[in-house]
């Protein structure tokens, strides 16, 4: 996933990039776990919830640091 930022700061870019990297890693783990264990396995659900939290954190970081994805 690649996002370009307009009117951003160096702090914003660093925080957003770190979160994006973590999101991609968790997303890959979720896909693997889903294929191995299924959609309703407790581990898959837990990973999905963690992914949701990271995405929410990214959205909050975008808003709090005035990042504007284009």
Question: How is this structure best described in words?
Answer:
This protein is mostly helical. It has two helices and two strands. The chain has a two-stranded antiparallel sheet with strand order 1-2. The longest helix is centred in the middle third of the chain and has 28 residues, at 10-37. The protein starts with a strand and ends with a strand.
Mean pLDDT: 81
| Mass-distribution shape | elongated
- Structural category: mainly alpha
What is the β-strand count? 2
Number of helices: 2
Low-pLDDT runs = 1-5
Can you give the helix content as a percent range?
Answer: over 70%
First-last Cα distance = 13 Å
Could you give the order of the helices and strands? EHHE
Largest sheet, spatial ordering of strands:
1-2
Taking Cα atoms only, what radius of gyration do you get, to the nearest Å? 14 Å
Major beta-sheet overview: 2 strands, antiparallel
**How large is the share of residues in beta strands?**
5-15%
Brief summary:
This protein is mainly alpha-helical and 70 residues long. The chain contains 2 helices and 2 strands. The protein has helices at 10-37, 42-64, and strands at residues 5-6, 68-69.
């Amino acid at each position: 996933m690649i996002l370009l930022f307009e009117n951003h700061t160096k702090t914003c870019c660093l925080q957003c990039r770190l979160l994006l990297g973590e999101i991609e890693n968790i997303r890959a783990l979720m896909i693997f776990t889903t294929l191995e264990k299924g959609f309703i396995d407790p581990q898959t659900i837990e990973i999905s919830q963690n992914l949701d939290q990271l995405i929410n954190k990214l959205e909050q970081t975008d808003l709090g640091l005035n990042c504007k994805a284009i």
